Amino acid sequence: MFEFNHHHPLAPEFYTTVLGFTVVILLSVWFFIHYLRVGLNSSDASRVDAKK
Q1: How far apart, in whole angstroms, are the C-alpha atoms of residue 16 and residue 36?
Q2: What keywords appear on the UniProt entry (predicted)?
């Protein structure tokens, strides 16, 4: 699947760091999108100043 570079001693730590940051960024983006979808849902909002 992946060819690991055995000549570089920090390759596993690099891949782990990149994978970890990728997971953190994806979770952050998902929570932000979820917040926008829930927070900007105007179907359950109450009208404050209804025009008559």
Answers
A1: 30
A2: Membrane, Transmembrane, Transmembrane helix
From first CA to last CA, the distance across the chain in angstroms is 67
Q: Phi then psi for 4, rounded to 5 degrees? A: -80, 140
Tell me how far apart the alpha carbons of residues 17 and 7 are, in angstroms, rounded to a whole number: 18
> In the numeric block, which tokens belong to residue 21?
């940051």
pLDDT in tens, 25-37: 999 999 999 999 8
Dihedral sign, CA of 28, 31, 37, 40?
A: negative
pTM over 0.70: no
